[in-house]
Design brief:
Blueprint (H helix, E strand, L loop, with lengths): L2 H11 L4 H8 L3 H9 L7 H11 L3 H5 L25 H17 L2
Helix pairs in contact: 2-3
Amino acid sequence: MTFSKRLKESRKKRGLTLSELGNKINKTEATIQRYESGSIKNLKNDTIEQLADALNVSPSYLMGWDEEKPYQPTTIAAHLDGEVDDLNEDEMQKVLEYVKFLKSQNK
């Protein structure tokens, strides 16, 4: 799989729009779209690292050097950009229970 495909797949798995990913790394939506389409092929190392950080994958995964599966968040904490870093295990469990409750209300 190519860099552009891995980038797009990782972004979609995180539920991010082109604009949201661009905002995370200080790039425009159009630039992210060009990365995903393969129009821009020579990215700087720091850009690749920023993309990987924003998508919670390794740079080597994006580059195709590593076949590790992209990180798939299993908790709401993975989506909160550090907002819950200081929660203990019991508090995190309560957050997860609340998320389950909210999801059950939508059914």
